[in-house]
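Action item from last week, closing it out:
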Amino acid sequence: MPFGLSMVGPVIYTFGTPEQKAKFLPRILSGDDWWCQGYSEPGAGSDLASLRTKAERDGDHYVVNGQKTWTTMAQHADWGFFLVRTNPDVKQQEGISFLLIDMKTPGIEVRPIITLGGEHEVNEVFLDNVRVPIENRVYEEDKGWTCAKFLLAHERTGIAGVAGSKRGIEKIKEIATTEMDGDKPLLSNPFFRRKVAELEMDLTALEYTELRTLAGEAAGKGPGPESSVLKIKGSEIQQRITELALEAAGHYGAPYFRGFGEGDNEHPIGPDWAHRTAPSYFNVRKTTIYGGSNEVQRGIIAKMVLGL
């Protein structure tokens, strides 16, 4: 599913008008429209409420000016959901609105950011006098922070990525069964085998925590602070999986440190599975940052769960 579809759908379903639901939800469900998320800005990442992209009323439109960054797949997106400041004279969280913006609107410029893995996945988005119909605002003016918190709780739950991590561990075990460490399979190495076992135990604990969260949602209780636990452990497990894969690849991963010199990646060596280990390792470094950095999540847990 394109990034953004699973994020904006629940927001429109929960906070949108009947007209917005009829217009957007069917195409979100079918995947006909790609969406991107306009949250982070230079200087407003972990402290998202300090965002400065502004939207000023002009008749039946907002005029939006500002910059967003780390916008995943914006180069492909048909629509974007953006947090913008509509009132600079109140508490930061109370002056933000949630807008749905057609990415083909004049005044929008998308510039690529090439990641350490050598890929064009994220972007900068510049908005210069972009006119957005007021009917594209979700929920009340200046109350977009309510939508933002709701969306982030669902996003953090999804970041747990239990199914993907299960597949990742199974792949590592398959690799370590065939790759040799001296005259024995790598999985026979007690140090490597211990790392795999610890990963499996942590992932099992994460899975049961996620199941409890899903049971709460099924009972009508939306994800709360427990989504921060899922985000922390899920992202750390994903990083550990890529670390183990790169460890298993050993010197075969070296040619795929893209961008580190002329001729990178031109002469593949080693098994096919090793070709993606270095780019994946670099790419997954970001998981502990996006969706609210893990340091911020620990603060949320301390305040909302432990009452500190």
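Closing note: The helical segments are 5-15, 18-30, 144-159, 162-178, 190-218, 226-249, 277-283, 294-305.
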